[in-house]
Amino acid sequence: MKKIRIKYKLFLLFSFSFIGMLVLAERSFKLSQENIHNATTIFENSQSTQNVQENYIEPLNVLREMSLSLVMSPNDDYRRSIAADLEAQIKLLQEHFNLLDETTYAIWLGYVETVNKTHRYLSNRFEEGAYVNVNTTEREHYYKLLGRLKELQHDAVAQAETNFADIQASAKALKYELGVIVLLLSTLVFLAGYLLSSHIVSSILKLQEGLKEFFSYLETKANSPKPISLSSKDELEDMAILLNKSIKKASASIEQDTVFIEDAINVVNDLKSGNLASRLHASAQAYELQLLKDVVNTMIDNLELKINEEILKRSEQEKLLIQQSKLASMGEMIGNIAHQWRQPLGEMSALLMNIQVKHDFNDLDDEVLVNNILECNKINAYMSNTISDFQNFFKPSKNKEVFEISEACQRAIAMLQASLKYHNIEFYFDISEKMEVLGYPNEFSQALLNILSNAKDVLSDREISNPYIRMQLKKGYKYMLIMIEDNGGGIAPEHMDRIFEPYFTTKYAKQGTGIGLYMTKMIIENNMNGIMEVKNTKTGALFTIKLRSASEHV
Amino acid sequence: MTKVCLFILLLSTLFALPAVEIEYREDDSASRALQIKDSRSHIKVFLPALPYVTVSRMINEGLVRLADNNNGWEYSLATQCTHPSELIYECDLRKEVRFQDGTPFNADSVIHNFEYFQKQPINYTDIKNSLRKVEKIDTFKIRIILNKPYGMLFRDLARINFYTEKYLKKFEWRGSATGPNIEEAGPYGLGPYILVEGIITGRKQTPHAILKANPYYWEKGFPKIETITVYTELATEEALHLMTLKESELDFMPIPFNKKIETMLSSYSKLVILPSTNNFAIYFNLLKKDSPVYDKKVRQALNCALNQHNLLTFTYKQEGAVNREALQSQECPLSQEEIHAVLDHKTFKVVTQDALLFLWKGIEYQLSQYNIQLHYTITTDEKKVYDLLLSNNQTIQDWDILSQNSVDWYGRHPWLTFFNYQEGNPWSFVRDDATMQLYISQFFRLEQGSAAFNALCEKIRQRAKEEAYMLFVPTPNNVFAMNKELVFEPLGIGMQPFWKATVTRQHWSMREGKPYPKEFQVPILPKRIP
Predict the structure, then answer these.
(1) What is the helix (H) or strand (E) element at residue A427, kind and residue range?
(2) Which residue has the higher pLDDT, A203 or B74?
(3) I need a labelling partner for A174 at 20 to 30 A (CA). Which of A125, A150, A193, A451 fits?
(4) What is the ipTM of this complex?
């Protein structure tokens, strides 16, 4: 069986089935033929029965009824009419009975004689004799003849019954015959089918196992699948061989692709770590992966190129930004210097005016001159210090250092003190204790100055009555909070999400650069690992800076 | 219940019939008849209707006797009569005639009897008014003198029998309505038989009577049977049973029409049928004022409602003839609607003998379409019928309709019917019909058969039909069952001349206990006379 190919096995099975069907059809056809024959016979029997009924029994009953009516007839007119009908009926029946067997015909003649006798009695006015005859002898002959006709009917019916019984017996025998044939053929087909199917199923199961193993391998990539082992010498073995080849090939491809994917992962990790020079070098078996490799490498090339371009661009932009920021800071610084210098310049001018006056009035003495010069020098020194302070303030801190926040705050305040005063802005600075943080103090002061400067501009621009700026320093367990609040009306809600974006400004009219708060957030969060947030209060804006204390860094 | 019983009986009769082919034989009893009276000979007869007519005729004789001929009578003790004038008849008497006690009969006997008769004449004819006297001319010749012409003289003479002096002294002549002068058994008459046991008067009779041959009877060779037992009150079914299924119990009886087959097929009886002048007299109680039949329209409607032809066909089984007294269909004075209106839901009290039940069932069936109800009083005893009938004139009875199984006691004469219309007649309930009484008074004076007689009869019939004095039905045939070994030709009138009957040696009375031979038990072809 193992040596036979499936198509031959199936051919064998279908051949069995086909032969079985042919046998069954032949037997059924035979039964049908027999049934038709027997049914025809039954039909003929039925016709015979009907013939006896219609042509003999029923007319005989009519004759009997006529004879009785003849006897009972109340007058001669009726009697003559009935007698005529009776004679015609006898003639009709005579023709019919001539066709039957001698026995029946003899009985018929006997009956007719009794009928005629009744008739004769009546003709002779022997009513009583007719009455008796019709109810005795004639009746007896009538029943005898009727009985004979019923016998004929019975014979036909019996023949029909016999035929019917034959049909039943034949049908029964054929039923058993068909049953045996069906049983044998079914068994044969079943066994053949079972053996065939068990072989096929066994092979299919092995194929299934091999495929399961292969698919499992496809999922897990853990263990390489074993080759499917079939020795059925049929199409399934061919299929197994083909599958084994395919599995082997697929396994090799998968392993190669796995290497490729690992390479890809490494490249991605490199890219994550900023190594844009990393490229996919492994080869994939799958065409798509190979295509992916080319695409990824091209993409990384493009990305590297774009990043470099972007870096360059950003660098330029930052340069520009820094330049702008510097210019802005310079403007600010000049403004602040101007505010800082306004008083000393006035004092110096007064001293010079005093010298001029004294000179004009010749009241200038050396002492006054020297004193005034000394005083001017002092003033000049102050102004020079001011410029140094500004220079130092904007000088970037070179390294992270621990510094006192309040001092950094004081430096920022000092930068803006004169301007605040100029704009009648009340400034409150609440510091409870000294707090140290690790970072860049100048950048931090610059950041505070940006916030304060923005607050000052808002209060000034919006012409807020009783303007104020409040700065509080609070020390927590791990963090320190610096809160700067004003009553400048707050930030418009639509601007709230964007105020830390670079180049976002609401001060176009005053040549705002949109860099200040961006830079401030960068300094706080990127350089000093702090957190900066803003929200509106009832009266204005509240900036909160949260910095880790220096002890936490340690 | 009665219908059901009759139906079951009919069915049982049909299916009880033998299945073998029935052969019939001719009646050859006459060829085997005894020519000389044997002292063992004995027949038993059942006469359910007016038995006294036959019995009286057998034990008595008068100048003439009832006969089944056109005259209705024949000479008996008178050998011939002359009619010298309109009111005189002279008759020669038979000589050497003796009464049953051996005393001689002559003109004196006649005169003597007429003397008694005229003291108490019969009351149902006009003899009492018509007869003046009877005179002796010589020892064997008498003269009858009438007051007025009387056409019914000889018919009345046939009922004026002569009795011995002994009888007359004891009982006189009693002109009763029925059965005259058979008050006691004894050798009192002149007839062929002597009543030796029982009495039969109609109003009063014993269940049976026994007659013995009169050794002095004047007619040589008669009677031919020694003993005759006459039964008067058997139930019909019982009588039929005795007649057809038993031998030696009954030799002669009239049978209902529906019993012909049993009679014919019986081992012991044969069937004899002949037309008759008997009738079934059906009286309306014209005296009962609260009776529906007191209304002439009701009586007319009842007569109109009966289909005589159908009665004849289905009830009489064709054994009868249309009654000329009955209304013909075109003679009905009422429309069909009037008949319905008059008869609708009427109830009648009917008295009848059981022998006439078959007739009443036929009548009832025909009247059922008018929703009529009949309440029957049925009796097997004829005396009861007579009592209810004849006492009605004295005390009005409760019945509305009464049927009497009458026979022709008067010998083919219309008086058999007309006497019911005569006012004062004990059988009549007609009152205040002067026309009818005029007709009847004229009727007495006319000779039967004359043109005037026939015309008057027709007038009387028409008058009776107009007034619907009676309910008329067809005239029945006489249908008799006779023992196969009885040789006898019955008559179609109400008297049967059994003195002419004889038997064969195979008759039960002659066999002395020997069984009746099988070959004689074969059914005999019915005899229809003529």
Answers:
(1) strand A426-431
(2) B74
(3) A193
(4) 0.72
